[in-house]
Every structure is written in C-alpha cells, then in structure tokens.
Amino acid sequence: MSGEFFFAGSELRAGLLAAHPGIAHGFGTRDGASPEGTLTTVKQIHSTRVVDAATILRQEVIEGDALVTNRPGLAVAVKTADCFPILLADPVAHVVAAIHAGWRGTAAGIVTSTIERIRELYGSEPRDILAAIGPGIEACCFEVGPEVAREFAHWDRRLYCTTTKEMVDLAAANAHQLADSGVPRNNIAHAGLCTADRTDLFFSFRKERDRAGRMVSWIALRPDTTTGQ
Ligand SMILES: [Zn+2]
After folding, report:
1. Strands 66-69 and 95-101
2. How far is the CA of 136 from the centre of ligand 1 (A)?
3. Which of 30, 87, 108, 217 is such that its CA lies 20 to 30 A from the CA of 5?
4. What is the CATH number of the domain that holds 128?
C-alpha cells in the first residue's frame, strides 16, 4: 500500500487521488464542512448493495452502501463514524465510487461488489483503479466478539489475533478485497488514522455512541475533464 494523506481545511485527502486533476474528493472530519445537499447519498444499511448514482431521482431515498457514477460533476458520498469510507476512482474509464464499509459490509464483500459493478456498468479495469481507505476504526480498537471474528476467519488469519482479545482489521480486510479484485497494491492508500483513538479529529461511534456525528466523505469527476477527449 502506498500514498500519503494530508489535511486540506477540514478534510483529509489522499495524495494518490489528489494527484489527478480530474478527480475531486475529501474525507470528512469532525469539522467537516462538506457541501451536503450537493452530494448524492444513499440510506446505508450495511449491505453489499451498489447503486448507480445517476439512477437516483431527486428526493428519492434509496438503500445501499456504495454509490458509483461516471457523470462529471455528480458527487457521491458516504457517511461514517468508525466504519470505513473508501473512495475509488478510475481515471481511464472515468468512474468514481464511494463505499461505506463497516464490519458487516466488509465481511459480505462490499468492495468486491463495487468493483464488479463498475466493470459491468462502465468497463472499468481493476488495474486502473485507485483506492483510498479513509479514517475508520483500526485493529487497535476494534475488539469484537467471536461471532464477528468468525466472519473474518476466511479472509486471512492475520485479520484477527486470538491471544486474549479478538481484534478485527477492517482496513486490511478491505485492502485484501481490493487486491484480490485486481487493484495493484501501489494503487491502494490507507489513511491509518484510527477514529476511536483520534476523537479530536474524527467521530467514533464506539467512543461517543449516540453523541457521535457522522463524517461525510465524497468523490466526483470534475466537470471539465471529459471535454476535449
Ligand atoms: Zn485505535
């Protein structure tokens, strides 16, 4: 995995996405001033349901956990507090995606489903996909019961340790899904900032429960990038 992350105002950005002038994105923080209202979202249900954002009508509430689009200027977004926001961009096929990956979605393969969908819909090749795994609850703080740990046993033994506690590494599980789908390791960036440890910066549902707000992470193709091609 590679790629630095940096703060830009109230947002966190991934260098690997920011390096592409045709892509705009941001991972929300506690102070997130993301332009809600201009963003397309879904009602998140911890599923593997991938929604083509262009099919959502104004005011319509659609359930799902990933949004994809190839429409320039249409920003797709997910809301999180411990779950992982994952942003994908394919600068070749001109497609972006925003994914909400909590433990249920991760175990069920939301990332794999999203990549399959953008291949089907837009002919995206995994080798061209850039992926940024934003701030979420890291393995240091994600202690789970045996029923949750069991969901991850098939991914990789490294995903949880059984010394005294069972800790699930959701970021690693999602990175595995990206790599297994054919996304090159060098195209995968991981913020590595734990929301539960850094409540000065991020909301954490585990730490704050009902007081936790939600961070909005979004991505869009800039409207001017497809002209002249
Ligand atoms: Zn932590």
Report:
1. antiparallel
2. 9
3. 108
4. 3.60.140.10
